Amino acid sequence: MVKTKTNTEDYLRMYRQMMRIRSFEDNANQLYLSAKMPGLTHMYSGEEAVAVGICEALKVTDKITSTHRGHGHCVAKGANFKEMFCELLGKEQGYCRGKGGSMHIADQSNGNLGANAIVGGSMGIATGSAFTAKLLGKDDVTVCFFGDGATAQGLMYEVMNMAALWNLPVIYACENNGYSEYTKTEEIAAGSITARAEAFGIEAHQIDGQDVLAVNELTQKLVARARKGEGPFFMELMTYRYHGHHVGDINREYYRSKEEEKEWKENRDPIIKFRSWLVEQGIASEDEIEAMNAEIKKDAEEAVAYAEAAPYPDQSEVDMHVFTDVKHALA
Amino acid sequence: MREITLSQAVNEALAEEMRRDETVFIIGEDVAEAGTPFKILSGLVEEFGTDRVVDTPISEPGFMGLAVGAAMTGTRPVVDLMFGDFIYLIMDQLCNQAAKTHYMSGGKMSAPLVLRTNMGATRRSAAQHSQSLHALVAHIPGLKVAMPSSAYEAKGLMKTAIRDNNPVVIFEDKLMYNDKAPVPDEEFLIPFGEANVKRAGSDITLIGTSSMVQVCEAAAEILAKEGIEAEVIDPRTIVPLDEETLIASAKKTSRVIVVDEGHQSYGITGEIAGRINEKAFYHLDAPVLRMGAMDVPVPFSPALEDITVPTPEGVAENARKLMSGEMIHAA
Q1: Do B62 and A65 touch (CB under 8 A)?
Q2: Which of A85, A216, B178, B255 is most solvent-facing, going by the fewest CB within 10 Å?
Q3: CATH number of the domain to which B53 belongs
Q4: Given CB atoms, is A325 within the 8 Å cutoff of chain B?
Q5: Which of B12, B17, B29, B60 is catalytic?
Q6: CA diameter of chain B
Q7: What pairs with residue B116 in β-bridges?
Q8: Tens of pLDDT along A32-87?
Q9: Do A162 and B61 touch (CB under 8 A)?
């Protein structure tokens, strides 16, 4: 573990945020398995140190764009459980009034410009957000989250080229979880991923995405430099997805082994690793951590119960929000 | 009143709006010093600088995506797409991202951008530089679509588009850039969704879009000499569509031809004809006739290209058939 100069509160918040993501996902998975959730969803479990390490280095005014596997980013950027579960269940009190769902969850109040159901689809949006900061003279930084699968999309290279030409304050954060849907990344990505960014003259780092402190320390440095106009930057975060591509992808031995999953879950889990470090360093006791876990679990369960009982949007909302200036588009 | 070209009208609209609102910027290929291949933007980079008149690499999806993100975070991009045919390249960013931003976020986010591009055949530019693809985007909820028919509309609609909080696509007919029309010196805007009755008449209604307005006006001149009084209507925007004015005219004249330069099948002509059939059926004395471009890729040879688009003579001929009671395409 890399040691960063920060305080106990920051460490505990990082732990707490990682645990909140895990807890959120466990509950979301249960909602799916018990057929209480419409559609399906993509679990972030196993990748928590990436979202938390990065978002803990950002201010609330900094922006992120997210992916179909986006619950982790949303929580890490400051979202509440209640509005998130309401959105997953298509309820009126969801972040998007139930119109976006899991794959489009956005939390503008915390600078989350939204998840995106098109792989690589938000790379232009993230780069444009950084363009706004530069044009209007704001010091916001934008982080573009995407997976290794998205590195196969042409849009990525078009916008990285422009970001590099114009020194935009954007950080491209590639969460390499080893699988592009149901296919090993090595089968879809030729050469090196970081070298692709370097070809544009973009400084690129490959880093252990299971080490929240390492991720946080690197991000803090890159964010500070991006604010000064030294961007863009590229990070490849080596991580792992515990679940399948989505919650319904249960029998996956044809593309990865149970032994491999076991290895990551038992020996490389970002939460277990950070927890032992906190105890080892005397930052928190086992009891304190257990109490925190219990409180998070209770919060999540309460939010699920709240969302289950919450009302659906009225059907009259179906043609609202098509245009900003027309209350009902079909009236 | 002074007369200026359509090209000058667009240039004036952009300059006025950029002076009024510093968040407005232009982005696209060769928009700065080159002023576009059609020289529409000449002089703007000198006044507003390269920060606000931004030359991009030849990366249409990239700069379109960037514009979506910029629009979502507080600016008003005017995207210059050099040829309307390139719209296929940007469909994901325009239709999956920009068009759905407001809806998917439950009304919390929006993408106030303008995509200005062109349309129109008979410039001997063959199948990939001559298409009129407005029907493709008019099909997508969340996008507004404007089709100026002269310099006057080009200016007024552009200014309205830039101030609109929704994504707006403006199709300029590239053959009309040098056409002059009276345009007031003083500032004016043309509201969306208000059709313009260009010529009043009682025998037949000719609804035309973009350059087809001129075709309809010329047809009306021919018909007037034969004692047929045609009413010519320019919807000016096809989304929103001023159904009321179109229906009222159909009820008055009882015969309608809809003329548009997009392909006839599954196009604007069919959509408008369908709405008139639904809402003015008992007032009609003849089927509403569609006249679009031929359902063929635009051919290069002048001998072939010229016959693919509606002409004044063709419109007049069909008007005579409707007037004489001859049922077009009847079995």
Answers
A1: no
A2: B178
A3: 3.40.50.970
A4: yes
A5: B60
A6: 62
A7: B80, B170
A8: 999 999 998 999 999 999 999 999 999 999 999 999 999 999 999 999 999 999 99
A9: no
Shared-domain flag, residues B212 and B305: yes
CATH 3.40.50.970 describes domain A8-319: yes
User: Is B118 within 8 Å of B131 (Cβ atoms)?
Assistant: no
pLDDT tens string B271-322: 999 999 999 999 999 999 999 999 999 999 999 999 999 999 999 999 999 9
Catalytic member of B129, B139, B221, B283? B129
ipTM of model? 0.95
For residue B193, give the chain A residue with the closest CA: A326
All residues of chain B having their beta carbon less than 8 Å from the beta carbon of residue A118 are: 92, 96-97
Question: pLDDT per residue over A28-39, tens digit each?
Answer: 999 999 999 999
CATH no. for residue B237? 3.40.50.920
Q: For chain A, what are the domain ranges? A: 8-319
C-alpha–C-alpha distance, residues A27 and A182, integer Å? 24
Contact criterion met (CB < 8 Å) for A129 and B70 = yes
Residues B171 and B209 in one domain: no
pTM of this prediction?
0.96
**Which of B23, B25, B62 comes nearest A124 by C-beta?**
B62
Same-domain pairing of B175 and B200: no
pLDDT for B325 equals: 85
The mean per-residue pLDDT over the stretch B2-25 comes to 98
Same domain, yes or no: B89 and B200? no
Number of domains in chain B: 2
Q: Is residue B296 part of a domain?
A: yes
Query: What is the tens place of the pLDDT at every residue in B113-131?
Result: 999 999 999 999 999 999 9
Decide if B134 is inside a domain.
yes
CA distance B72 to chain A (A): 7
* B330 within some domain: no
Does some domain include residue B331?
no
Give the residue from chain A lying closest to B55, CA to CA: A162
Chain A residues with CB under 8 Å of B111 CB are none
Domain boundary among the residues B182, B207, B226 is at B182
Residue A99: Cβ-neighbour burial (10 angstroms; 0-12, 13-18, 19+)? buried
- Least CB-CB distance to A124: which of B69, B102, B112? B69
Select the residue of A65, A118, A128 nearest B96 (Cβ to Cβ).
A118
CB contact under 8 A, B65 and A99: no
Q: For residue B176, what are the domain limits?
A: 3-182
Report the residue of chain A nearest B97, measured CA to CA: A121
